[in-house]
Amino acid sequence: MKKQLVICLSMAVMPCYTQAETAHEEFMATLYINQIDQKTDLLIIKKDQQWLTACQDLANTFLDLQALTKVTVAGQSYCMLNTAPITAEFNDAQQSLQMHVPPSFMQNSEQKNNHPNLAAASAPFGGYLNYDALYKKISQQQSYNEFGLKNDLSLFKDNLLFKNSTLLHHSNKANETQDQFTRLFTQFSLEQPNHLTTLQIGDSISPSSPVSRGVYFAGLQYGTSFMQRPGFVYWNIPSIVGSALTPSTVDLYINGIKNYSTKVNPGEFNIQSGALFNGDGKGQMIIEDVLGNKTVQDFDLSVTDQLLRKGLQDYNISAGRLRYNFDEDSNDYRDYFTSVYFRTGLTDTLNLGFSANYLKDLQNFGAFSSQYVPHLGMITLGAAYSHANSANGQKFNLGISKNASYFNLGFNTEYNSEHFKTMGMDDSQNLPKFDHLLYAGLNQIPFIGHLTFNYVEQSQYKKSNLSDKRIFSLRGGKALFSSLYFNYGLSYENQSKDKLLFDLAFSYQFDNKHSAYLSKNNSALYAAINKTDLALTGFDYSASVGKNHESTIFNTDTTLKKSFGDLNLRYSNNQDAYQAQADFQGAFVFLDHSIGLTKSIEYPFALVRLSNQENIDIYKNNEFVGKTNKKGELFVHRLIAYANHDISYDQNQLPIEYETPILNRNLVPYDLRGYVVDLPIIRSFDLSFKLTDFQGAAIPAGSMISYAQNPDHSVPVGSQGIVTIYGLKESTQYTFTVKTGPEQHCTFSYLTAAFNNNNTLIPATCR
């Protein structure tokens, strides 16, 4: 190749010519793609009507470099900028290259759903003891009373959790006393949040499936746990697929309601929206680019949380001994067994799975599938085989369901052969031969409101000594006014004494706490007033009076909710008998060297500490929770596992001399663990000193005093050597420097007290 000589006689706005085998022009130009300035200046070569530039100079654009045609010039890779279907024009006035690029030549963008798998915070060692004390007295022909005490002990550290539950029961009936102590369950669990799995050792329940049911057992269990995570989206969430020529905003509407919005780069995009929607509906995607142009795309949408998304597996392996009568016997362990459950999302609309159980005298295996068919709904199929006591059995089921905006309907039928058995069944027990369920529901019906219909039919084998069952119900309701609701129902059961029943009911909501209720059915008339508050502390009550046949019935139910527990009192009286009951539920907690009494713990919780500040409002996700006690502490209950919580307080309630370096903390908890949330508050104050030198003479007025903790802040000394220093902290050693002249200074030290309320002059000698 001949050597080239390039001579440029002007700046970038003028063409530059080269001498070689084939002459070409070179330009410096600003790059525009689809009318959008890329904020990039390129050296562009025009050769044989082709526009070229070094591929490496396009790295910061949205172009897909792999899709562009490339040539080699002087050993360097150049990309062709006007190869069909891409076009390019040079604008002499703007000294710019205007490219028109279709989306297929731009980088694809993909966004995952907006429900991330949050990592749980490390939990300190701690524990709690839930207790439930119940006393009941019943007076009928013979009076008797009962007392029960249920204790649930939990110990935790990080992802480890130990639980043990016991029940003590005492009864006195007809002068006969019975006492019973039962261990309900003992379990140790280890969560593996990165793998979305949990290992359990001890008492557990095996998973159920369309072809088998869960059983209570003791042993080992390992399996996935993402179903218990509210932030983990395991189903086929709506995806937005499209393309954009320029940076754009994409909005997703479902049934006319905006569910999702995001920004996309130029090119083709595939976004998992994470929209919280379940059922069939109409979707609409609106794309608006930076130039204000809009495009609208309508489509049908189907989402169901009954299906795992493609590629996701749900599995469980259990092994141990079956447990019977666990509420009465602490150690009724019998047959050894092994159980396997597996389900996978083969596609976004098809799931396949199986379950297998093995005992010495019983083995069964079943397979099932769930398929979503557009416009038809969800179709589930299941088949199972069992071998028990030298007899074989079969099970088949079929289900069809569809959920839409204004209606839902479904049908399920199940057949069990006479000898089909599953784990947990007694030898003499039989499943129904046929079990049918039909349901339908309509919403937003003019003048009617909503209407639901259910029909259940069970056919038994003759040797089961059970009667066939048929149940029919029709229910509906409508809001007559903003606070007045009307409900009605009609039901039929062939085994009931009153086979055909009807009921009418009116309810009135005075506000978000108080309501009244009136109902009438075949034989009874009831009226009730209620107060229910979602707050963790307060007083709830319900009182009702009614007439059933010839008896008048009176009921009261009151609950006193305090920070240390809830007391529930119930009383029921009719002409022949009465029943009284008292129930107290609470918890004893020990956490991070602190102990305390609080409500029963059923969710993750946090102990908020606010540096001994009493009566300060605490908030969870900007919702008021309660006020701190005398120690500046408050238990925050009902946290959600693996979800983010913002714990904060009202800093405006603090005196002005307090500083608040941390106003809130974010917390993502493990399930059933406790956390300590420290929100430090620093108390500042001022001190006045009377300064003298080592000879006892007052420090001259106008001298400047400073200290290392705040070197940029200096305070002048007043007359008679008196100075007041503001913003000092408790229990802190300060060394003050006093500058008395251009080259003269002295120092003195002072240790502030834990609670300094010294309003007198403090003598200090500056040396």
Automatic annotation (TrEMBL):
<dbReference type="InterPro" id="IPR043142">
    <property type="entry name" value="PapC-like_C_sf"/>
</dbReference>
<dbReference type="GO" id="GO:0009279">
    <property type="term" value="C:cell outer membrane"/>
</dbReference>
<dbReference type="InterPro" id="IPR025949">
    <property type="entry name" value="PapC-like_C"/>
</dbReference>
<dbReference type="GO" id="GO:0009297">
    <property type="term" value="P:pilus assembly"/>
</dbReference>
<dbReference type="GO" id="GO:0015473">
    <property type="term" value="F:fimbrial usher porin activity"/>
</dbReference>
<protein>
    <submittedName>
        <fullName>Outer membrane usher protein YehB</fullName>
    </submittedName>
</protein>
<dbReference type="InterPro" id="IPR000015">
    <property type="entry name" value="Fimb_usher"/>
</dbReference>
<keyword id="KW-0732">Signal</keyword>
<dbReference type="Pfam" id="PF00577">
    <property type="entry name" value="Usher"/>
</dbReference>
<feature type="domain" description="PapC-like C-terminal">
    <location>
        <begin position="689"/>
        <end position="750"/>
    </location>
</feature>
<dbReference type="InterPro" id="IPR042186">
    <property type="entry name" value="FimD_plug_dom"/>
</dbReference>
<feature type="signal peptide">
    <location>
        <begin position="1"/>
        <end position="20"/>
    </location>
</feature>
<dbReference type="Pfam" id="PF13953">
    <property type="entry name" value="PapC_C"/>
</dbReference>
